[in-house]
Amino acid sequence: VQLQAYGGGYVQAGGFLRLSCRAPRSITSVFNPRTMAWFRQAPGKQREAVAHITGRGTTTYSDSVKGRFTISRDNSRKTVYLQMNAVKPEDTGVYYCNDDLGSWGQGTEVTVSS
Asked: Is 35 exposed, middle or buried (0-12, 13-18, 19+ CB in 10 A)?
């Protein structure tokens, strides 16, 4: 499944961004049940999971973003979102979306300035 992530950019600490990940070539019967996730990779660090959402909408978050980030999905648009609020400089990195079939998007870069 091809995934397209976008919405990254520059933001000051305390600000917000919304990332989107869509699967334009997927059909809804394939996309809807998939568990989708956002990962991020900070410079010089390993890729880490940020948030997951199941096909039924159950969400989980890493401790570092819990209470600040919200993952959601719109199955009619075959899109998953990551609402990032109260961002911190340590949120800087390249954000990737992923599905439980092992597909990855190309990444979208987020830079948070202090």
From this structure: middle
- Contact assessment for residue 10 and residue 91, using Cβ atoms and an 8 Å cutoff: no
Please, are residues 87 and 14 in contact by the beta-carbon 8 Å criterion?
yes
Query: Is residue 39 scored above 90 in pLDDT?
Result: yes
Cβ-contact 88, 13 below 8 angstroms: yes
CA-nearest of 44, 58, 52, 37 to 105 is: 37
Confidence band of 1 (pLDDT split at 50, 70, 90):
low
Dist CA 80 CA 32 (whole Å): 11
50-71: b (≥16 Cβ within 10 Å) or e? bbbbeeeeeeebeeebeeebbb
Task: Let me know: does 6 contact 108? Beta carbons within 8 Å.
Answer: yes
CB-based contact 109:8 (threshold 8 Å)? yes
Average pLDDT of the residues in 84-103 = 95
